[in-house]
Amino acid sequence: MSEASIYEIHDPRFRQMIVTSAALDELYSGCRWAEGPVWFNDANQLLWSDIPNQRMLRWTPESGVSVYRQPSNFTNGHTRDRQGRLISCEHGPRRVTRTEVDGSITVLADRFEGARLNSPNDVVVKSDGTIWFTDPTYGIMSDYEGYLAEPEQPTRNVYRLDPTTGEIAAVVTDFTQPNGLAFSPDETILYVADSAASHDESAPRQIRAFDVVDGKRLANGRVFCLINNGIPDGIRTDVNGSLWSSAADGVHCFDPTGKLIGKIRVPQTVANLTFGGPQRNRLFIAATRSVYSVYVAVSGAQVP
């Protein structure tokens, strides 16, 4: 595709962050709702969720697409911990799990203060090994992406989990529907998407920013940016501190002050994204039925 067909330049800086000759490649089509892409550089593979189809898929440049896990417990978002293990949010059992090196599954969290979680959605791991995840109600609103149920938690929270002690704390409790989350490169800020407008047009469609205090608490919550087409779902930051968000018309890029500087247009509604490839300069995009990729001129901040 030409530059004019996939890029919107809102600020000259965005032109330095993209490869204008790079095409938007469709790697796979056939999902019902593609979500949660995560890159494994050591295995040269991308994993992602196809939530309603109860499966996780794997793509490699050499072999294309295969089924990684089925059934998947309606798995949604994924990340890796500092040891390289897969951390997953499962709508079905309403839990956060870790896939061990031998393939076995360890349950990290499924309850808070004695009650079941709603449906863990997305997850990131901080450099100290703590796991931060969101818990909206999408997975219990119907039987399409989980199992219909009444929420047991009074609020939809953002949690911090210490996997060494099992301690779990609600670090934000005033979200309508918390969704994707990402740390700034220096981990002083946590960005969290509120995607409640997915089911209520009058609800928030914003990304909020919080200062990380002592590595454990969040303070000074404020609106970082608004999504002007669709809702924010999955988000990522690059090494320069810019934030890349999913949206209805593609991927939106914001500078560290929250100014929209550009868009990469995608033919389908984008749910999530991640940086990958050997240089972390390939953007993998989960968009409804398909997974796309496009090379960019910056690298993602997330490690490993």
UniProtKB/TrEMBL annotation:
Keyword Nucleus: no
Keywords: Hydrolase, Plasmid
Zinc-finger is among the record's keywords: no
Gene3D superfamilies in UniProt: TolB, C-terminal domain
Domain SMP-30/Gluconolactonase/LRE-like region: 33-288
Pfam families: SGL
Record SUPFAM superfamilies: Calcium-dependent phosphotriesterase (SSF63829)
Lineage: superkingdom: Bacteria
InterPro entries: 6-blade_b-propeller_TolB-like (IPR011042), SGL (IPR013658), SMP-30 (IPR005511), SMP-30/CGR1_Lactonase (IPR051262)
Name recorded for this polypeptide: SMP-30/gluconolactonase/LRE family protein
